[in-house]
Amino acid sequence: MRCDKLQVSCTHFLNRLSQVVGTGVENPQDLATPRPYLSSKSIFLVLDNAETILDPEANDAEVIYRWLTS
Asked: Total structural domains in the chain?
């Protein structure tokens, strides 16, 4: 998943992630929305240029990091 063109926000990240993995969720407002789908599949996800969305200076970087690591 290419991250360098994403606006750094959890909503944008989850929206793109949902598109990439095919969850069918268009506007995930709840961070848990894609989790059941992702936990039920074997997925190898590569985050290209992840430093863009995980930059400590970005607004939602910490939220995105917590979502990815939980």
From this structure: 1
pLDDT of residue 20: 84
Q: Give yes or no for residue 2 having a pLDDT over 90.
A: yes
In a domain, 21, yes or no: yes
- The Cα 20–Cα 45 span in angstroms is 9
Return the DSSP state at 2.
B
Contact 34, 28 (CB under 8 A): yes
Contact 7, 53 (CB under 8 A): no
Angle at 14 between CA 13 and CA 18, to 5 degrees: 120
CA dist., res. 41 & res. 8, Å (int)? 26
Domain ranges, residue 33: 10-69
